[in-house]
Amino acid sequence: MGKIKPRESQNVEYKSSWHDKYLEWICGFANAQGAVMYFGVNNNHEVVGLKNVERLMEDIPNKIVTTMGIVADVNLLEMDGLEYIEVVIETSNIPINYKGKYYYRSGSTMQELRGPALQQFVLKKMGRSWDDIVNEHATIDDLDRSAIDYFLRKGYENGRITNEERNLPTEILLHNLDLINEEGKLKNAALLLFAKRPQRYFTCVRFHIGRFGVNEADLMFQDVIEGNIIQMADRVIDMLKAKYLIMPITFKGMNRIEKLEVPEDALREILYNAIIHKDYTGVHIQMHVWNDRIEVWNSGELPIGYTSETLYGNHSSLPRNKNIANAFFKAGFIDAWGRGYKKIREGFEGAGLPMPMVENFCGGVRVTLQRKNVVESALKSVEKNVEKSVEKSVEKVWRLMKENPYITTKQIAENIGLTIRGVEENIKKLKKSNRLRRVGGDKGGHWEVISSQ
Fold first, then answer.
1. Domain shared by 281 and 427, yes or no
2. First CA to last CA across the chain, in angstroms?
3. Phi-psi region of 295 (alpha: psi -120 to 50; beta: other; left: phi over 0)
4. Which of 152, 197, 345, 434 has the least C-beta neighbours within 10 A?
């Protein structure tokens, strides 16, 4: 059998025979980067021939047109007396469906797009992003002018906003930032960036930070950062400095220097990426702080074809949320040319730390930062602080039970920000120290506080 020389293409597929199932593949390639498919050719590029070629030369193009509304280039070819078919699929600039379903070729897999993934795909094909959608119910009165003033001050300090722009009325400023439409309706981006209570519109606008011990079940304490996203990175950094990370003390001459254990500018860049590129139809951003590492996770995977190596090299900027990215650029928080990871690399190299690892994980992007330059004494200090925090949790549980003997473990967990398992561990400690006992069963019973000593 002779071997063919395939046409140059980003994707080439070989099929020994034709089945109508392959119309899904054609749909998926049209929605992705296009492809060339050969029928009557095996995976070794050897021509094995097709039966009923004349009928297939009529059926294949007709089925593509009638089921998907696109025209593919279908060619009859021959080698050594054996006939085979070449189908050239071009990338479509509009979403294509096959029998009402949307398929997309990603890597070596063919995926059916549903839910948020389908929504993001359709918006992208239309040249829009989710944050560009108009909210029909919100008004300018729902925005926090102090958040807008913060944005303007930062932009002015970074040379990206003029003094004249700082004094513009809110509505004109929003028009200039493309955050409001001609009818005066706010876009999702405006509410995420500047709303007084963005959680009223989007339940996932939160940043969860947790301090963990030996495993995921060992949650020692946690905090939830809420509010607008333009100030979120500042609030997260403040919380990390106050409670979660180390600021080792050094001296330069007579000057006392306290620097965060990881390069702060690089950490901010990682936070900005998580906030800007987050899929806001997904769940909240999560930060896991361990003894030896920090993990930052946001919903929404990397752009197709992008890897950790792509990000740390020269690459184009492909923001998931274009309006949010533009506002962060105007504030001077990010560059517009995909240079963020270059800053991260330079920051971690300068601190003598391993490069953060970036990977798709559980439907999102996870960035892992090592804490190898935290000295052992500093870690012991953290552990002491953790112990103190745990002690405080015990006292909080004890106090709540004293105030309300009928309180449930779920109510306690919600009140002090622990997991139910964490509350149960504190209850065990109180029982062991003879400060608490249960009177009656789980239903109808109550707690009896014995002693505060």
1. no
2. 89
3. beta
4. 434
